Amino acid sequence: MKKVIILGAGASGLAAAYRLLKNNFEVEILEREMNIGGLAANYKIDWDGKTYSMSRTYHHILQGDTTLQEMIRDLGIWEKFHLEKVTTGFVYKNHVWGLSTPMDFLKFPLPFMDKINLAKFVLMASRKNDWSDVEKINSEEWLIKKAGKKNYEVIFDKLIRNKFNRPSKEISAAWFGTRFVRESQSFLKKFGWVEDGGEPQVLDLLFEKIKKMGATVKNGVTVKKISEDNTIEYEEDGEVVKEKPDLILSTIPPEIFLKISSPTENLKKKFNEIKYLGVVCICVGFKKFLTKYYWLNVLDDLPFKVIFTSNHLYKDIAPEGKSLVYLASYMDPNDPRLEKNDEEIFREWMKNLEKVFPGCSEEYEWYKVVKFKFAEAIFDIDFENPPIKDKKIYFAGIYRIFPKVRDVSSSLESGFEAADEIIRDSHE
Question: What is the dihedral of CA 309, 313, 316, 322, to 10 degrees?
Fold first, then answer.
């Protein structure tokens, strides 16, 4: 029986472990954090005498997230999966504008013909399945052509800069389009959610399942070195441990992998080309609802770029009449904001949230701040997925999913893909 050590217990690592265990591999997972799930790990919050489980960052299940939905069914909790119609809008000039109904659409401050062009663009994009024809076209060029210059300037350019921290001309139209269409289709139909904790619950159940299947999982482990002969050196409880598995599967960010390994020159070149965004995400419990909209994209110059009122989707995530709100902003991994303390970030963001929802700073009851240096890979117009393997080391994670959307479903798919590659190679 071949032994595989998996670096990282996020969605990709857990999915790969699940597939490998089913195919009679011995699996050990090394995770730096004391929890599992990465960006989809959970909080346990005591709120009004009840404990609520919620994701550390905002998550939802889109119409096209079939892999995640299949996992929910496989784990035996399909009855906890629900579809919900939600509403969306924009924060523009410190005002909330809805874009969920024809009346909302008519009220949005754009010239009438630009609204018509916007509606045509949404319809066109929602029907487009193959994005390979625009992989090498930048988003600016494509959006101006398809949606019109005014819509690009007022909406799309700001959305892209807010989301990707890059000018539109540096972002692949295929990546933006894939993301836009997946989200648009869900808004036209419904979003999915899972009772009793959402996606973190799914990953927790998957984690428990792979442990029952025989996986060894070590949390709080820091990998120091991967030698050329695939010996892994890591620190556990203050002691240095060395192991030499048959194969290694890395799901950790490329920048971290390069620091602890001796990759081939080709892999080093490919990994050095991958750029990441960091994220700051604040989760706030409010005494009341601030808005009727689930998802607000921020077009103004505010420190946060999205506002999610989570319990407009997740019906069991907050006490009756109260609201759970996520504020998030993506930024360069070296941005000094990632080094600020939690209270400083919270005070600054609440001060700016007051511009949109006056009096809100008097309505919160608790908050949590999370910061991830490597939250999302940037898919520019020259991006290509790096190799899936380098000698006896295999790779999975959000930097190998181009042009898919970065979400739990895509992360699971990447883990399955790497596991299948290992299985095929082992049978040759």
Answer: 30
